[in-house]
Amino acid sequence: MDFDQLLTFLEVAKLGNFSRAGEKVYRSQSAVSAQIRQLEQEYGERLFDRSGKIVRLSPAGEVLLEYAQRMVALRNESLRAVADQGETPRGVLSIGANEATCLYVLPDIFTEYCQQFPQVQITVYRNFSRKILQAVEDGVIDLGIATLPVKSPSLKVHPIFRDRLELMVPVRHPLAAKESVTIEEIAEYPQIFPKTGYTRQQLDKLFRPYNSKLRVAMEIPSVGLIKSFVVSGVGVTLLSSTFAQDEVRAGKAKMLPIAGVDMWRELGLIYRNDRTLPRSATAFIDLMRHRPVAKKSKSHRM
Question: Domains in the chain, please, with CATH?
């Protein structure tokens, strides 16, 4: 047994598919199958039950899953411990964030970090904020970036980003000529909503008085796709003004403030306050502490 086999086993367990797991670990489906067979021969038990394209953990596989996660975590911890013996941060920085944060907030930050600490390899765990919080709590990743507020007493929070939510419309939309819009005006047009998450919860509250006439044309989990469909004229959406800068600069969309609504998206860097972090993580925290919070404002969030 080697760690490559364990990593492949964990990917198959997570994705429930040999082919997709192979893509994640850069191996062919046949190579993945061979690694799983080797593990099964070593343990003397079938680790997965296969029914057509559906792959599920067997009872023996369920037992191995916990041990495999612990062994991989211990290996990563040992690598970080050895890397921390040097004066300059190196090794791996594991950080979690959702898609929008990865696309619109982190690129400049990562560029600055990599310039200062070129010996550190960054691995990104991309998921929803609630999953990021859980991964930090469980020690699966060193740091996370999640939507505020975060109420867990075991987590330290450092605000890093604050931006107003505004209405995004295509440039030829009837509302595009206005300087600002009301919620009542917005509710007259088809909406494109994020499928889940904090922003979706806030939008549901905001439009609740207009549910009888509200038309949700699309529900999409991707900010990039939401913007594309707004530009194409499918509907309008509320999102962080920073996220639509490229479309606004290109003359494809316009962002409009919402009269009488002070609604913000806030992000915080989070980590366990009772855990000794590797130098790669503490260096990232120090970098973020010396950066101003984007779009800082005294206005309160809705």
Answer: 3-81 (1.10.10.10), 88-161+265-289 (3.40.190.10), 163-264 (3.40.190.10)
